[in-house]
């Protein structure tokens, strides 16, 4: 199963992920923010780091789904990215769920 989470900062994506992880087995949680922070020491633009971080997410998601693991992805979801994830889900016969979290004031 592939779960995609998107939404504004502070909308509860990480909290939602933590709750889901408690109820699912064999889960990999991938956050573009966490991966991008791991690239902080490198002298590159934010756009380059985002591109590399998204590539890492795609590679890891593919490997995890192929090995039968559930994957929760927290990253910005634009139509092109969603299509990539949909293709990965189709290739691995995985269900895909897409959620947008909205911050309430």
In words, what does this structure look like?
The chain has 105 residues and is an alpha/beta fold. Helix content is 50%, strand content 21%. It is built from four helices and four strands, in the order E-H-E-H-H-E-H-E. The chain has helices at residues 13-23, 32-38, 46-66, 79-91, and strands spanning 2-7, 27-31, 70-74, 96-101. It has a four-stranded parallel sheet with strand order 2-3-1-4, with helices on both faces. Helix 2 packs across helix 3 and helix 3 runs parallel beside helix 4. It is globular and about 40 Å long. The N and C termini lie far apart (31 Å). The relative contact order is 0.29. The model has no long low-confidence stretch (mean pLDDT 90).
Question: Characteristics of this structure?
Answer:
single chain; about 100 residues; alpha/beta; 4-stranded parallel beta sheet; 4 helices; globular
Order of strands, main sheet, comes to: 2-3-1-4
- Give me the number of helical elements: 4
Strand residue content = 15-25%
**Biggest sheet record:** 4 strands, parallel
What general form does the structure show? globular
What is the overall pLDDT average? 90
Please write the string of helix (H) and strand (E) elements: EHEHHEHE
Strand-pairing-aware structural class? alpha/beta
Stretches with pLDDT under 50, minimum 5 residues: none
Radius of gyration over C-alpha positions, nearest whole angstrom:
14 Å
Cα distance, first to last residue?
Answer: 31 Å
Please give the number of β-strands: 4
Helix content: 40-55%
């Amino acid at each position: 199963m592939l779960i995609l989470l998107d939404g504004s900062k502070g909308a509860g994506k990480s909290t939602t992920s933590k709750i889901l992880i408690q109820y699912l087995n064999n889960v990999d949680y991938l956050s573009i923010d966490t991966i991008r922070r791991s690239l902080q020491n490198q002298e590159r633009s934010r756009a380059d780091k985002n591109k590399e971080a998204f590539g890492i997410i795609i590679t890891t998601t593919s490997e995890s789904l192929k090995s039968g693991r559930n994957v929760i992805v927290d990253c910005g979801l634009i139509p092109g990215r969603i299509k990539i994830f949909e293709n990965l889900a189709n290739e691995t016969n995985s269900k895909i769920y897409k959620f947008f979290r909205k911050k309430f004031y």
